[in-house]
Design brief:
binds thymidine-5'-phosphate; globular
Length: 215
C-alpha cells in the first residue's frame, strides 16, 4: 500500500474534526491525494451503526456489545474504504480509530472488558496494519464536554450517549489516551488542544511534516 493512514483521537470536544479538515486542506495544497473519514460512520452501514452507538440511553448496551459494534464498523470501514483508498495511493485521515475503543470501552469503563479481548478483535478485524501516525488531542474533560454539549444543542438528534456518562468516565478515558501514547511513542503524538484553532493546526502540520517526512 502506498497511501498513508493518519488517525485523530481524543476525548469529547477536543476539536479533532476541525483539525482533521484543516490538515486535509493543507495536504491538498501540497498536491497530496487525500480523503477524510470517520469511525463510527465512515461507510453506509457504518452510519447505521453510528446511530445505534451514539444516540439514546447510555445503558442500552454494555461495554462488550459496544466493542463488538465498533469493531463491526471498523472492519467494514477498513475493507470498503480505507484500504481500497490507500491501495490507490491516497492518504486517509480518520476521525477516530481503534485507540478510541481502548480509551472508551477499556479505560473509560475502568477495564471491565479484558484488554486481550480488544487486542484479539483488532487482530481479527485489522491484522498487523497500523496507522502511520496518530494525533491525540488532549483537553480538560470539562472544557471538552461543554464544547460537545454546546455543539449537540443544535442537532436534531443528539449524539450524546457517551457524553452523558459523567466526569469520571471521561477522566479515565483521557488518561487512557495518554497511556496509549506512552506505550507507542513512535506512532502517537499528544498535543495540548486548549489553544486557538490556528495555533493547533500549525503544530499538527509540523508534526505531520516531521513524522511523515514531508519537510
Ligand atoms: P465522535 O463524536 O467523535 O464522532 O465519536 C462518536 C462517539 O463514539 C464518541 O463519543 C466516542 C465514541 N467511540 C467509542 O466509544 N469507541 C470507539 O471505538 C469509537 C470509534 C468511538
Amino acid at each position: 500500500m502506498t497511501g498513508r493512514f493518519i488517525t485523530f483521537e481524543g476525548g469529547e470536544g477536543c476539536g479533532k474534526s476541525t483539525q482533521l479538515h484543516l490538515l486535509q486542506e493543507y495536504l491538498q495544497k501540497r498536491q497530496i491525494d487525500v480523503i477524510s473519514t470517520k469511525e463510527p460512520g465512515g461507510t453506509e452501514i457504518g452510519l447505521e451503526l453510528r446511530h445505534l452507538l451514539v444516540t439514546g440511553d447510555k445503558d442500552k448496551m454494555d461495554a462488550i456489545a459496544e466493542t463488538l459494534l465498533y469493531y463491526a464498523d471498523r472492519r467494514i470501514h477498513m475493507t470498503k474504504k480505507v484500504w481500497p483508498a490507500m491501495a490507490e495511493g491516497k492518504w486517509v485521515l480518520s476521525d477516530r480509530f481503534a485507540d478510541s475503543t481502548v480509551a472508551y470501552q477499556y479505560y473509560g469503563y475502568n477495564k471491565k472488558v479484558e484488554k486481550s479481548v480488544l487486542d484479539n478483535l483488532y487482530q481479527v478485524a485489522v491484522g498487523d496494519f497500523k496507522p502511520d501516525l496518530t494525533i491525540i488531542l488532549d483537553i480538560d474533560v470539562e472544557v471538552g464536554l461543554n464544547r460537545s454539549f454546546a455543539k449537540a444543542a443544535g442537532m436534531a438528534e443528539k449524539e450524546t450517549r457517551h457524553e452523558s456518562r459523567g466526569l469520571e468516565f471521561h477522566q479515565l478515558l483521557r488518561q487512557g489516551f495518554l497511556e496509549i501514547a506512552k506505550q507507542e511513542p513512535q506512532r502517537c503524538v499528544v498535543l495540548n488542544a486548549d489553544k486557538s484553532i490556528e495555533e493547533l493546526h500549525r503544530e499538527i502540520v509540523q508534526v505531520v511534516n516531521e513524522r511523515l517526512g514531508l519537510a
